[in-house]
Amino acid sequence: MLLSDVYLAGLGACVPARVTTEEAVAAGWYDAAEAEALGWRSVAVAGGTPAPDMAIEAAREALAASAHADADIDVLIHVSCNHQGPDLWSPQHYVLRHTVGGTIPALEIRQGCNGFLAAMEFASLYLTASADRTAALITSADNWGDPLVDRWRATPGGLFGDVAAACVLSRRGGFARLVNVRAVSLPELEELNRGGEPLFPPGCTTGTRVDLRERAATYKGGQDLVDAGRLMGETQRALIVETLEEAGLKPQDITRVAHQFVGDRQVLGRLLEPFGEDAADKGVWDFGRGVGHTGASDQSSALHHLVSTGAVSPGDRVMLLGAGAGISFSCAVVEILDVPAPAGA
């Protein structure tokens, strides 16, 4: 979907203190051989801070940087992967209450690790559907420290890190323009994240620990894991090509790639392959390996990092890549128009 007047007006992130993989290995939480093979350096650990409170902190930074008043926000979208608080509760309205307030719609998107980009697409459609709408506030946050998740062992090749991110999308203007965003699904692979677990009663109500490695190992879909991985790679690479072609761009026109944080170097290499020989330099692995896989906040926190550290300049284009359970994929292009001043400046 090509866009003409949707802008990124402000970004925010909440990144708690890190625990190094060396500390985790010494404590017996993380396998030493895996640590050496995968290259994760540390993960962000929020302790007892609830995910929605992290989202509020990131949202306040994004709002301050955006120069938008609370009344400019027409919709709030909160994105999550893991539990946010009590079941049958509404974290999006908690975030709304403690940020811009008012009576605007507040929605939650559960699109797995692809959620933030899905929210950007939905927010763009919402804003452009009516001429009287100005801006959207998107937040995402997860705290993986609950008793049913082992952040060091729960997912193949990855470590879960606690990070929140936020973005103000605006039709009034901003430091960057959202050029386009596209999404596709592979529903035939939904079993990869389900494995042999029953749908009812839900595992979270029976004390079943989250083990995505075991679920993948019990996958009995129509193809083996190697073929499933190949299909996912082909699908995401095709989406990258389609997104570039729609925007009238070539791979060399992309300055940086804000991708999902994965520890498997082969997966990362295949992910960045469409961007040429210098693809590794375009990625954000140096940042990602220091915070862990954050769920839905990988791409948005990476973009915040690139912007806040001055790693991108006016005229640069950043591609955002998302992949989540489902299987779902999203791809977006952001064009940097200006280097934003620090929040509160």
From TrEMBL:
Transmembrane segments: none annotated. Residues 244-336 form the Beta-ketoacyl-[acyl-carrier-protein] synthase III C-terminal domain. It comes from the Bacteria. PANTHER family: 3-OXOACYL-[ACYL-CARRIER-PROTEIN] SYNTHASE 3, BETA-KETOACYL-[ACYL-CARRIER-PROTEIN] SYNTHASE III. It comes from Streptomyces niveus. Keywords: Acyltransferase, Cytoplasm, Transferase. Residues 108-173 form the Beta-ketoacyl-[acyl-carrier-protein] synthase III N-terminal domain. This is Ketoacyl-ACP synthase III family protein. The keyword Acyltransferase applies.
